[in-house]
Amino acid sequence: MIKRTIGNSKPLNAIGLGCMGMAAFYGKPLEEADAVKLLHAAVDLGVDHFDTAEMYGMGVNEQQLGAAFNDRRDKVFIATKFGPKYNLETGERRVDGSPENAKRALEQSLRFLKTDHVDLWYLHRRDFSRPIEETVGAMAEAVKEGKVRNIGLSEVTAETLRAAHKVHPIAALQSEFSIFTRFIETDGILDTAKALGTTLVAYSPLGRGMLAGWSKDWKADGFDFRALMAPRFSGEALESNLALVEEIAQVASDLNATAGQVALAWVLQRASNIVAIPGTTKLANLKQNLGAADVKFTPAALARLDALAAKVKGERYDEAGMKGVNG
To answer: What is the pTM of this model?
Structure first.
């Protein structure tokens, strides 16, 4: 097991669990009893970092975690997020980073999670209508009140991270990072995080599941945003990208590992301040993911994997989604 810290946390398993898919975006949500069973199994396997958000099922995911961890709170590090707001009637989405919304969201999260504090509280997306300093200042007040242990940001630029850090230490920056998605390296985001002592929390380290070794006949099951709002998951782009996944599988075979384990291990070896939060709703996948800690790369394997990013086709979000990231 690889252990790394986030802010003032104790050493945590570098492979956490992204919980979004239990409640939203990837088909039918899990029943609460099934989610609790999976979350308890994760703790038993040594997972202690669990990532959720207000918008995951409009609070359903936080309630799943609350049901699972209210009697074992001291064993888990819980991260949640706020900011995006949806109008269910019009479909309008906006980000509200106001102090008023921050306070409202935190109180709701604490209630749903059945806890008196959050270990890590993120601004989920930047609110471009106000200075980042204003939002982080409001979040810092929650730290003073003892309701939050650490502050984080998600999908922001190096410049925004530096500005926020001047107001209050930013313990974590959550960004998409995988063999297929490497902008944090080219845009100076990872280097800035290292310099500031900020942990980089890699979400979608398995490329939203694709890098785990999907076959060419993959199809979305029910409502799945990948097929609707992620161009690299449709048409010719998907076909081309799945051919690259086959290359990862070949590397994995040479290393006596699975494609998913290789993809996760690749993320963790990029820097000592990186942790990953792959998501799954299946216990077998969770166990397999944890095996990534044992993967040992050869120079040839790393070179082959490093060359893949330049060949990926399609953006990770549609045009509307891309406007809200890396801000």
So the answer is: 0.90
Three-state DSSP at 319 gives helix
| Burial readout 162-178 (b: 16 or more C-beta within 10 A, e: otherwise) | ebbbebbbbbbbbbbbb
Q: Measured in whole angstroms, how far is the alpha carbon of residue 80 from the centre of its chain?
A: 10
Give the H/E segment covering residue 164: helix 158-167
Rounded Cα–Cα distance for residues 96 and 226 (Å) = 25
E strand spans, the chain: 3-4, 12-13, 17-18, 49-51, 77-82, 84-86, 93-95, 120-123, 151-154, 172-176, 199-203, 274-276
Residue 40 tokens, joined: 């308890």
For strands 93-95 and 84-86, give the pairing: antiparallel
**In the chain, what's the furthest Cα-to-Cα distance?**
54
Low-confidence residues of the chain: pLDDT under 50: none
- What per-residue confidence (pLDDT) applies to 45? 98
Place of tokens 């409502």: 223
Q: How many CB atoms lie within 10 A of CB 133?
A: 14
Which among 75, 142, 83 has a CA at the least distance from the CA of 107?
A: 142
| Active-site annotation holds for 56 | yes
HSE value, Cβ hemisphere, 13 Å, CA-based, for 176: 16
pLDDT, residue 265, reads 97
Q: Which residue of the set 56, 86, 122, 203 is catalytic? A: 56
Q: What is the rounded CA–CA span in Å between residue 227 and residue 130?
A: 33
CATH of 3-209+263-294, one of 1.10.10.10, 3.40.50.150, 3.20.20.100, 3.40.50.1000: 3.20.20.100
- Whole-angstrom CA distances from 64 to 53, 203, 223 are 11, 20, 20
Q: What is the pLDDT of residue 9?
A: 96
CA 327 to CA 315: how far, in whole Å?
16
